[in-house]
Write a structure and sequence with these properties.
The chain is mainly alpha-helical. It contains 11 helices and no strands.
């Protein structure tokens, strides 16, 4: 994830060593916050990046975690903690529920998606197979970041065009 977010922020090669040292999930100034401010990564994906970074930090800074079991970690959670974990590591469930409520997007909407994105279903998935739950969210987030890399080029082109048009040269 660090590499993809760094790639997305490396539009200016002279900033490469600065950008590579920025924390991934620092709320006010991390890479995820910058991508969010640029409109390249939504709130749900930033929540995932932050949660993944926090879990990583818990694990790598204590040698006692060398035999860490994600399954046992999840099984030891209280119901509230499991729900928070499941939602934090599922950046798409919120979007799917929003889509199902929008009349324009309801046309052709597969109701099975809504059932799968129900919070209880998300919690059950996280409890049953937490590694897969995180992996799916990571894949989804990574795909979005890569897609937004090209989109940011497009946004820069639109902004440049607007500047030229404002100056009477477009």
């Amino acid at each position: 994830m660090h590499a993809s977010t760094t790639l997305s922020l490396h539009k200016e090669p002279q900033l490469a060593d600065i950008v590579s040292r920025i924390e991934l999930s620092g709320k006010p100034v991390g890479k995820a916050a910058i991508l969010g401010r640029l409109g390249l990564v939504g709130k749900e994906k930033r929540r995932f990046l932050s949660s993944l970074s926090e879990l990583r930090n818990i694990l790598v800074h204590d040698v006692r975690n060398s035999e860490f079991s994600l399954q046992q970690y999840v099984e030891s959670m209280t119901p509230e903690a499991l729900r928070s974990f499941a939602v934090a590591f599922s950046p798409t469930e919120t979007l799917i529920r929003k889509f199902s409520e929008d009349p324009k997007l309801k046309v052709g909407f597969d109701m099975k998606l809504l059932e799968q994105s129900d919070v209880d279903a998300v919690v059950a998935m996280a409890r049953c197979n937490p590694k897969l739950h995180i992996w799916i969210a990571a894949y989804n987030t990574l795909t979005s970041i890569v897609d937004m890399y090209d989109y940011s080029d497009y946004k820069q082109w639109i902004n440049a065009r607007a500047i030229l048009d404002d100056n009477g040269k477009g």
